Amino acid sequence: MTDREKIASEDYYDVLSDFTQPESLPVAVRDYVYQRIDRNLGVTYIHREEIEQIGFRDFTYRSIPKIYGLSDDVPAGGSGFNPSPLLQSGVLQTQREPLGLTGRGVVIGFLDTGIRYEDAVFRKPDGSTRILGLWDQNNNDGRTPEGLLYGTEYTRADIDAALLYGSEGERLSGYDENGHGTAIAGVAAGSASESLLGFTGAAPEADIVVVKLRQAKPFLREYYQIPQGVPAYSESDLLTALKYLESYALSLVRPLVICVGLMTNLGDHAGHSVLAGYLNTIATRRSRAVAVGGGDEGNSAHHYEGYATAGLVETTDLVEIRVGEGIQGFVAELWGTVPASHSISIRSPGGETTDRVDFRGRESRDFSFVFEDTGIRVEHVPVEEGSGDELIFFRFTDPTPGVWTIRVTIRGDVPADKPAFHIWLPLRNFLDGEAYFLKPSPYVTLTEPSNTREVITTSYYRSENGSFYGESGRGFARLAEQKPDICTPGVEVDTPLGRRTGSGMAVAVLAGICAQFMEWAVVEDNRRWVESRELKNYLIRGAVRREGESYPSREWGYGAVNIERTFEVIAGL
């Protein structure tokens, strides 16, 4: 088999490496392919016969790719173009003279479900495409991008030829059958369209580069208990997608804005994943900005906070999870706070209770029950390599419906006003039934990778009345770092595919705003060396803050974004 065939094969498992090959490989591995991402970062594809079992015994938590899903952008009613989200964020005002900022000379990169490149909102007035490049990770029949070992890349010329000579049955493989990527790209960078009753994207003259992500391989879907048919993407493919977007902008010597509308509840929620590290690297490069949505988990009841009791050597907390009928399985992650340590026991809905487990180090335990068909594997890492914190990973298979109780015993000197531990359940999209905490916390519900330090993270609100939207993720990050940074309209936002509400809409508006600023700063040579950190602070300075609200806020960050006010602040008005 060629390297390309191995990477595509379900017989080869993805393993992340944040240090250089060959140190990144398990001992005695012979059949593998190594894809370099950055100087000290890569993905190793290893034949499954070389791997006894995916888990913490042979691999670090960081090296097993996490699974990301699509933002939960739901259709919203209404007809005609709704200008409110772009007006309230200052986008339409900034598009007009005297600034006239429409994203000219800026590249916006999307890693998502592809793009419906035939749509008029992605074409110039002469009918040619505004898309510079389209990389389909799924198709291995065409030429690969430079520096990458799989997929097929389509250039602007390829897309223009498809527009001129192709038919519906001969579409390029990067075409978006799902619609999620098209909606986000349209909001961020769609051209003005008379046929859509006045629709325009936030940066209608920006150039576009797109990655159509491939679905995660079966071994990862099975490991994380992801239902069949649900869009799910591996962290390894997100890393290669980012490499492609960054390389494209470098080759053109152009400012780049990366729009991330994907999310997961896996990870420490403090920005220490391999993906977060690479996003930090890109975001701190000049002429770069990374916009990330904070997700839609605010009201999902998928987050729990446990506290110690002051003065006690041990505190016991009963964590109750309601599991509905028909759910095939799910995972959960407990992240502890230093210097506390944690032991657990589990009670089934029928009342059977496991022995208390006082973990001694890195280990795995399997639990079964006499009167339940449920199997539970618990993996423990006393000091997780990326964060330095304790991790307990739960994997439930065929859980009996009812209330499952995890009895968590906290030992150690933990301040009573700070959580001793957090637990997260998966995204709603990653469950094939009902699973939620009976006593959840709506805070610290920003999804990953939005807790990454250097990216610009947005929650979302309803622009018509200025109210925060309850489904939006909320801060802060797990270790109380400030996130979100800003709040952006995300309710009833017009897209080329109809009006939608969700985190993806908010981050798309934010990406367009970043492109507007990059045009002024870099293309027009006003702040040539700007990058995400500076751009973030410019947006914060111009944010709208309400009287009576404390900032930074768990919901609003430093306020509602308004790019027009940002330029007024710069001008000293």
CATH C-level category of the largest domain: Alpha Beta
Q: Characterize the overall form.
A: globular
| Average pLDDT number | 94
Main beta sheet: 9 strands, mixed
Tally of separate helices: 11
CATH superfamily of the largest domain: Peptidase S8/S53 domain
- Report the sheet-strand fraction: 25-35%
Using the CA coordinates, give the radius of gyration: 24 Å
Distance between the termini: 64 Å
Unreliable segments of 5+ consecutive residues? none
Give your account of this protein's structure:
By secondary structure, the protein is of the alpha+beta class. It has three domains: about 5-50, no CATH class; about 75-300 and about 450-570, Rossmann fold (3-Layer(aba) Sandwich), CATH 3.40.50.200; about 305-435, Jelly Rolls, CATH 2.60.120.1290. The protein is about 20% helix and about 25% strand. The chain has helices at about 5-10, 85-90, 90-95, 155-165, 180-190, 220-225, 235-250, 275-285, 505-525, 530-540, 565-570, and strands spanning about 10-15, 30-40, 40-45, 65-70, 75, 105-110, 130-135, 150-155, 205-210, 235, 255-260, 260-265, 290-295, 305, 315-325, 330-335, 340-345, 365, 375-380, 390-395, 400-410, 420-425, 435, 455-460, 465-470, 485-490, 495, 500. Strands 6, 7, 8, 9, 11, 13, 24, 25 and 26 form a nine-stranded mixed sheet that branches. The chain has a six-stranded antiparallel sheet with strand order 14-22-16-20-19-18, with no helix packed on it. A four-stranded antiparallel sheet has the order 17-21-15-23, with no helix packed on it. Helix 10 packs across helix 11. The radius of gyration is 24 Å and the shape is globular. The mean pLDDT is about 95.
